[in-house]
Amino acid sequence: MRAFIRQIMLDTTVAQEIDKSSISEHTCLPTGFSSLDHALGGGLHFKNVIELCGKTNTGKTEFISNLLASYILHTTNPSVYIFGSTGSFAPKRMHDILQKHNIQTAVLSQIEFSQVFSIRELSLSLENLGALLAASTREQSLIIIEDLSSIAAEINWMSSEIKHLTEIIKSLSKLQNMIIIQHNISKSNLQPKFETYWNPMIDLRLYFNKQAEYQRAYLVEILKTRYKAIDD
């Protein structure tokens, strides 16, 4: 386990053209940002729980949009499951994302969005998804939990509810899936209360911080990773 590997500047105006080769026999997904992909050994890894942290409006939603496009372009039979309460990736928003990346909007039929407003609802929805995926032949699904802070408002992070949620998420990742969790939280609030159940579940934690001098540039810190990151 390595904590704080390096800082990487991402400029969302110059994201690379995504290579459209298949990921069916690969274990990671390119993000479209060469510096980050290089640092992570090729991109974000399947069978991982990945947490994107940072205050609001620091580039996490746009980063996920690029990642969604990368996943769809790399996968012959994509399956995307999105859970949240804000609608950042609701069907209309997804339609716009696909058009921006010149992806046929027919793929919307393979993207499922579920509204959840509590940890209990999220756990139940993920449990149902786990049963569905365990009985199917699909591999390497992309599962996104958007704006966890709005779902987990006032939650006790050392409660049995959080323990149950982390067990469900870990079991989903073991089914060859990639779990992306958008967590609008400042670095100062990543407190010891997360250590009991939440932190041990996270395989990769990226922290996003907008740079004032660049309108669309973001500093990304690798705060935690289970696999070797490249330092040069």
From TrEMBL:
One Gene Ontology term from the biological process aspect of the record: DNA strand invasion
One Pfam family recorded for the sequence: Rad51
Domain Rad51-like C-terminal: 27-150
Keywords: Hydrolase, Nucleus
PANTHER family recorded: DNA REPAIR PROTEIN RAD51 HOMOLOG 4
Protein name from the UniProt record: P-loop containing nucleoside triphosphate hydrolase protein
Residue ranges crossing the lipid bilayer per the database entry: none
Gene Ontology CC terms, in alphabetical order: microtubule organizing center; Rad51B-Rad51C-Rad51D-XRCC2 complex; replication fork
Subcellular localization(s) per the UniProt record: Nucleus
GO terms for MF: ATP-dependent activity, acting on DNA; four-way junction DNA binding; hydrolase activity; single-stranded DNA binding
Species in which this protein is naturally found: Rhizopus microsporus
